[in-house]
Known about the structure:
By secondary structure, the chain is mainly alpha-helical. The protein has one domain: Hypothetical protein af1432. Helices cover 54% and strands 0% of the residues. The protein contains eight helices and no strands. The longest helix has 24 residues, at 122-145. It is globular, with a radius of gyration of 17 Å. The N and C termini lie far apart (38 Å).
Amino acid sequence: MAGLLHDIGKIGIDESLLNKRGKLTDAEWADMMRHPEIGYHILRSVNEFAPIAKYVLHHHERIDGNGYPRQLKDEEIPLQSKIIAIADAYDAMTSHRPYREDLSLSEVVAEFKKNSGSQFDAEILDVFIDQLLKQRVWKRIDRAGSR
């Protein structure tokens, strides 16, 4: 459920900012960085969602401590938040955005590997990449079998 609701805090961010085509200014970026805390407060206010609020709060933390909003490091970041961070990044990289095209699978894997151990938990990321590549192989096998 936390994965589905991880960006709920974006309802508190101006839509023009969410859809901006160019690079964000420092002030705009500071505003955008508020969305995990907004989401946290929304989820904390609903009894059924209160237990997952902390996972939403920390989904932009980085293993190296350079994330936001609390600059948590490695083991301080909940496992669920580490998983959401990878899924969120994958979605961002493979979805067309107003400000850029989606990336190919090889570009996504290269970007993940570049940030393994700094932005993303290396062990979780290895499992994720392995599953992505297996899925790609199975899709090719399915296509070949249906010819």
